[in-house]
Amino acid sequence: MLLLNNPTGKPIRLWPVVLIFLLTILTIIWIWLFDGLDRQNQILRSISVLGISLLLLFIWLLFFSRLRWKIRLLSLGTVLCVILLSIALFRIKGFTGDLIPILEWSWSKRAGESLTRANTNPGKMDEASWLSSNDYPQFLGPNRNATLSGIGLVHDWSKHPPRLMWQQPVGAGWSAFAIFGNLAVTQEQHGKKEMVVCYNLRSGQIKWRHSDNTRYEKEPGGVGPRATPTIVKDYVYTLGATGTLNCLDLLTGECVWSKNIVNDNNSEVNEWGISCSPLVLDNMVVVSAGGRLEKSLVAYHKDTGDPIWHAGTGRAGYSSPIITNFVDVPQILIFNRGYIVSHNPLNGQIIWRQSWPKQTQHVAQPLPLPENQLFVSTGYGIGCKLFQIHQDKNAEKFQVSLIWETHHLKAKFTNVVHHEGYIYGLDDGILVCLDLTNGQRKWKRGRYGHGQIILVNNLLLIQAESGEIVLVGADPTAHKELSRFAALDGRTWNNPALSGPYLLVRNDQEAACYLLPVGE
Questions:
Q1: 511: which of 12, 124, 479, 506 fits an S-S bond (Cβ 3.0–4.6 Å)?
Q2: pTM of the entire predicted model
């Protein structure tokens, strides 16, 4: 006891420690219950409060504790040693969708450093594989709405478990697979090379690889490409994280043409990397460049790479262009920073645009709905809105009006789906069901993190952020989880791809193919 006391014999001053703990607890309770922040800012502010509290404890220890100086210096030295040892042993691998740091051993191999041997001989193609009606040839599937029909998935995976076809390491990146026949194409980072890699769907064997000498790496965005390839007939179109737009031969991987949309359009690489998945329409491939001088959305000739048109001035977000019809008029939609914009597919001319709060990242895909309606959602506390698209027949101008808005669905970088008058999506990581008529929440249950969703008939196939695959009924009356299994290990943000019964999943470290049980 004498060792702890001040040389003057005064007792240790403990009331500041009690006060610091009480203030810390009360502040965190206020942040989570009363401050009205979105989940990510709640976490960031909580981490800041804990950091300030630790700093105040250090100040108390050194100057106000009344401990012997030997004890103060020994305690300070111990803490500094622990900090230095932690820095030596661990490094930040990345962040979860809620911006919580993920640690790994400092000697672990970094993402995107390894190379996998490829079988560069494409061999003979099975002609039947080119006739599949179950292809998943682009981002979010055939219609870019993560909706499939005609696949009767078995509900109970405990009795009929999915069968692992193959599982193997892949390069870093957040791209998904595009599937055409027996070929599955994705984008990966291998060292200093950004690669497009083609796999055999059923065996996982690498058929070919195309590489570009570029690398995107930035915290907290991570390493590697993030867009999904687009396969159209004999070609695959890819857009890398630094702006490399490629047209490749699907059978061999040979480059037909290549452009850099950043250099071409006087734009810049986004903070989280270029994420737009190319949209192929008729004779053109459309990408969001975010360039100045009417080069926000651009179209290149799909066979030659020659410019066709360019339009708009908005900076690019992280969404991909989609084609839809409003009032029987074909339109390309793109979610830029601050606006949802509609373009004429023939010449790129802007048809209409709708403002959106600029303080958020524009990631989630806008979802066109029946009756000329459009559903839009973003995270970071913003929420979602349902718009009605009108056309003034006399002036031939389009008008956009708000039907309703709510904070009950904040899709950060996940997609949402529509089924029989209800919207299903992940609200800051928790699955919710909204009534499309009024935006009212029917239920909110099931924490799946910032994952991804495919609607298969009346089932929600969810790739959870943890790597699990979960099957949930698309039922507005209640949350009904039917089955689940661990498909991957670790943080998984990449969209899954489903081709018939074959489910392809990947993250920034590994990929796997599962044969899902199906009924008649």
A1: 506
A2: 0.83
